[in-house]
Design brief:
- By secondary structure, the chain is mostly beta strands.
- It has one domain.
- 10% of the residues lie in helices and 39% in strands.
- It is built from seven helices and 28 strands.
- The strands form five sheets. Strands 1, 2, 3, 5, 6, 7, 8, 9, 10, 11, 12, 13 and 16 form a 13-stranded mixed sheet that branches. Strands 21, 22, 23, 24 and 25 form a five-stranded antiparallel sheet that branches. A four-stranded antiparallel sheet has the order 4-28-27-26.
- Strand 21 and strand 22 form a beta hairpin.
Amino acid sequence: MQRTVTRIRRPGVAALAAGVPLAALVAGTPGVAQAAPVTAVSAKAPADLNPRDFVLRRGADRSEPLRALGGELHRSSVDALLNAGGQDKMGHGCARSAAVPAHSLVYCFNKADTATRSWIPQGVTTVSDAVAGERWAGGGRPILVSWHNGGKVKLTFVNPARRTYRHVLLVEPKMRQGRATYSDIGIHAGGIVWYGDKLYVADTRHGVREFDMRHIYDLGKSGDGSTGHPGWVGLHHGKYYGHGLRYVMPQSSSWEFAHGKVGGKCRGTGPLRMSWLSVDRTSSPHVLISGEYCRPNWPQGRVVGWRLDALSGGGPVRPRWGAHLPADRIQGAVRTHGRWWFTQSHGTKRGKLLTTHRTSSGWAKVERRTISHGPEDLSCYRGQRRVWTVAEHPGRRALWGFHAASCS
């Protein structure tokens, strides 16, 4: 496993330009060198990409219900959440069942979370994505994992220092009869990125949902909050519920595609299916990356990047670059110093790790290695020189990171 990442030379300066820039966009961007137009890397793929397909615009304003919830509920910091009582304890023994490669760093969920078929882990991000110093206010170094169950989404804050973790329910805020409330979010949450105070969550058919780490609410410490009634969410009879969880985190904003709608399957054209997310902090400026999970009989998937600093404004946000993916069934990807890592699923069989880099004519030779069962989203933890992923299958579930020399 380690040999895969340490024997590959880093590409030259030209290849470090993260994919091949979209020619139509780059030509109009001051200070950016011209590059070759996007090139198809598969006979199944269209001949080029249209930058207009990937323009993002900010979604509906949620400031009113978010502000109202802040007046009703007790706000928690990330540090307080990590250190509060009642945490779940990490389990053990998951590396073997998930077939995690040797020399990996592994964290196991408890027996219930490892075995459950109701909740499936998907996205991974770490404090290394969030801040340059890789330490959050208060000293925590958490790893975050998103889960879905078809109609709900939760976020797990893993505290490696204490070998504990806690689930937080992600909710959509709204006003109802003059009172703030919230509801479940029924998305796949296939990828997540923590960047500064923001948490970006992939919404396959609509774009990106945005959350704010400064708006986490502790129902256990709120006079109008309750951790009872696991079947209830939002405001019921004057109290706020979160399916029995102590913490809820309401959506603060969203980014949607400005032109067209996302299809029910990969089409090779039009807005991107947001299957996964990652951030490249080794590029300047930092880039949010997203791509498509596409089946073998569908058109080739695409991968696109946007400047993260542009997402702090009101939009529109134009893509920085884009390309066709080098393979199908891609569950996650991350780029570091021009080196790309992809996870590829193979049903009930063990997944694959693909590594390559971009050249002026497309993808370089792709190296493949068998890894764990059900590998998902990817995130580079620079200080550890490890890339993290999560194995999703019940009974074969693990949060694990492999050594990667270019993740630094």
